Amino acid sequence: MIQILVIGSEGQLGQEIQNRCASVKDSQFTFTSLETLDVTDSTKLTDTIRKQPYKYIINCTAYTAVDKAESETELAQAINADALKIIGQASASIKAKVLHVSTDYVFNGTNYKPYTEDDDTCPASVYGKTKLDGEQNLIQYNPDSIVLRTSWLYSTYGNNFVKTMIRLGQERDELNVIFDQIGTPTYAGDLADTILHIIRCDLEESIAFQPGIYHYSNEGVASWYDFTLAIHQQLGITCEISPIESKDYPTPAPRPHYSVLNKTKIKDIYQLNIPYWKDSLNKCLNQLNA
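That's the dTDP-4-dehydrorhamnose reductase sequence above. Prediction below.
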């Protein structure tokens, strides 16, 4: 049995992986949560990784409170960056391959075309900086790792933008939503499918595990305003949505104005057909309704 460790299984992505893990044949998954594994405890994190002869480690853990990270810098650094050094060192010691999830916030959002993996990073927030530090730590200490940068993640699980807009749309008659931040909503179920696809390809020797940085999101582009309209239209929510500029809704952490990701690399190497964001949104909303 192939041993696979998933760190951070209580979050959106971790739970989507749990739902799909049976697709990896002849494997045994171990799932940890924040309650069972504190990734800021370097000794416990190391012992957990070295406990079994894991062939793959999937890290879904992250400090994702973007605005709070501006004041909780040490905690964000410990979870997003320092823990990745430990994961890198411990996984390398047992020759495990790592798949780690990062973010479009490693870019400052001043580009005018989709970001490639070779574009210079320049995070504008503490959250983005700590996530970039984590990428670099992992690759330094275990070069046999894949970093998957994604954007605007949502799911039927946990707290996310989709659920918030549903709740607010049902509670209010009017909403103001930012229209000058452009990216791509990403369904966590699709990202989970991709992570497990990479592992299956390696196990079946159809496509070798190729370490490095990859971009993954759903296809297409949207603003938060477009995203909200699509959510409400699918569910028949009649709340009036008004577009506003970022300057009209100031936040402690600056957001990228443009963070669309170019996914050519991962599509070519792993032969992926990535779903359009509205199709995946509809799938998620149908599951929520069910």
